[in-house]
């Protein structure tokens, strides 16, 4: 028997003046809805500090997207978490 779960990886980048300042990543698993792994990497501290308000807005928008996916998993009772029965292929007819 095959058990299939859906895993969503969401990535985002806060960009200021063409410079990648913060990279965000979240991994959401339908089997463990609400147990999201989240990573935030600041790649340019100087630009981050000079634009902290704008960057935090981007981070907040990214988190809102993560919450939308979490809410979908939670409100639908994790519909993508299914146990699939894999049947053997039929014998070819002679």
Question: Helical proportion?
Answer: 25-40%
- Rough outline: elongated
Task: Report the biggest beta sheet as strand number plus sense, adding barrel if it closes.
Answer: 3 strands, antiparallel
Give the helices and strands as they follow along the chain: EEEEHHE
Strand content: 35-45%
Explain this structure.
With 94 residues, the protein is of the alpha+beta class. The chain is 32% helix and 35% strand. The protein contains two helices and five strands; from the N terminus they run E-E-E-E-H-H-E. The strands form two sheets. The chain has a three-stranded antiparallel β-sheet. A two-stranded antiparallel sheet has the order 1-5. The protein is elongated. The model is unreliable at 79-85 (pLDDT under 50).
Jot down its keywords.
single chain, 94 residues, alpha+beta, three-stranded antiparallel β-sheet, two-stranded antiparallel sheet, 2 helices, 32% helix
């Amino acid at each position: 028997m095959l058990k299939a779960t859906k895993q969503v990886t969401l990535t985002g980048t806060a960009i200021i003046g063409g410079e990648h300042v913060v990279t965000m990543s979240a991994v959401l698993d339908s089997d463990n809805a609400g147990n999201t792994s989240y990573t935030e990497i600041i790649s340019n501290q100087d630009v981050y500090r000079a634009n902290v308000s704008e960057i935090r807005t981007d981070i907040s928008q990214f988190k809102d997207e993560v919450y939308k996916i979490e809410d979908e998993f939670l409100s639908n009772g994790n519909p993508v978490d299914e146990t699939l029965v894999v049947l053997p292929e039929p014998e070819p007819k002679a």
